[in-house]
Amino acid sequence: MTDSADDRLLLVVDAPSLVHRNYHARSGSDLRDRSGRPVWALHGMVRQVVEAIDRFAPDRAVFGFDDRTTSIRETTYPDYKAGRAEKEPELVDQLDRAAAMLDALGLHTVTPPGLEADDVSASAATWAEARGWQCVIVTSDRDSFGHLSASTRVLRLIDGGIHGSPLLDPRKLHTMYGVEAEHYLDYAALRGDASDNLPGVAGIGKKSAGLLLAAMGSMAEVWADIDHAGGANLVAAVDSLSLEAGGRRVGAGVLKRLTAPEARQQFEFNRAMMTGRDDVDLGLDADDPRSPGGFPLDAATVTRVVGYLGVVATTDLAVRVLAGSH
Length: 326
Description:
The chain is an alpha/beta fold. The chain folds into two domains: 212 residues, 5'-nuclease (Rossmann fold, 3-Layer(aba) Sandwich); 94 residues, DNA polymerase, domain 1, CATH 1.10.150.20.
């Protein structure tokens, strides 16, 4: 654990994304706990949680969950996430048990009423920045890219797991998308998100969205130019950047799509839906080492809870990492 405020680290884990990812990646194992219930997704989640804590040695850790009973976003937009395949019973069972299992270990979970794990991540990034801490978000969801900053990085889980996945910062995000981190939500709102059933601005794909933001900086500047100069500066800037990159003039076409009926409304709606709430009460105390989210955990408790999964190697690792003085 670290001593100075500048070096202290808050780890925030999007727990449902770990359960989903491990459910599909480990389904072939058909792992069952000592009572015969399916636990391959839970085991994968616990294993990755332990590996993340081992890798980053956080001073506090918080685990965000979705409220699975009510959704403010779905109330606002009844078709939110519509079209997703119905979850298999074994996945639902493990999602329902995930928070209780982490709580039983002594880890700190937060399920904000009506909200999602990404709102916990957004609030954690804000909490850490306000206190001069660093923050690492562990997730497989791109929504967290909007939280990247000088103090917050995102471990985007892919097939390589905790140790083989990219740890993104604003510079790496810019390399990937050509977009500054503070404008990533503009980029996402233009592009839309099919998994959440949020259509993008018609005719604006990821390439043109990236080009537009690289040329203009932010959508606030784009709308201001359209309102006050008819989009003349937009067309000139987009054309110039496109020609520099060996492309053709596309500025007039981009302007036409942005000024189409309902284009701005769709953008603003997407951005509002995608923006994580940053005011969730995380129940953390930066100064009290006994507050929720701290370490070490009780060794006997870790042994009992992880041991119930029936994987000795994971139990041993969990005891060393969670109950040790990392």
